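cron nightly-structures :: item 1 of 1
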Amino acid sequence: MERLHFESIDSTNNYIKRNYESLNHLSWVTSEVQTNGKGRSSKSWYGDEDSLLCSILIKEQLPVEKNQMIPLLAAKSLHHVLSKYHQSIEIKWPNDLLIHSKKVAGILVESVVIENEFKAVIIGFGVNVNQLDFPDSIKDIATSLSIDDIYALDINQILTELNKRFIKDYEIFKKNHIEVIHYCNDYLAYKNKTISYVEENKTLQGNIEYINNNGHLVVSRNKEFIPLISGEIALLK
């Protein structure tokens, strides 16, 4: 499996975007530091040498309905690996992993489409592994795998495990995506709790029920079950 590693880079996702034509299917790009990392909705992603920072390139075109579930596939693989190091990790639909409601990892999936023609999908992973402190702006909402431990974790070992796990999960996913849905439901964050979400520019509230077989988050509101296709959710405290 091809892997390119950098000491510092603007963003592993951006590198693949610039070079996808010359990279092989399922190539990995890793970096010790990202200077311009980002998450969903163009939010910045804090990542340093204590983080796991990587992206994987998918050049194989999947059916549209499966493409929409790639964030959940990535969440399943990442959760499976990180749960070896911490037992309280949950999956926040559609693209975050949490420990005690604090973000420990994020996933960014981007498509490369040129003149309406599919070229690639890029999956970016960012995991807070060995951080003990965070900037004031995120210290109340972020955590790391080892923040409560005495010993630092081996980031390269976690990367190797993630690589193997994702390849295995990806091959299964191509044949049957239902296992991914079941797994994510088993570890779904905020289940049966009230969250806020945005629909048609309105902020609404609902209770999280489950992820349906299309990968949509189903919430209940006023005795109705409403599937959310995309967007941000937040727990109401």
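cron nightly-structures :: done
The two ends are 44 Å apart (CA to CA).
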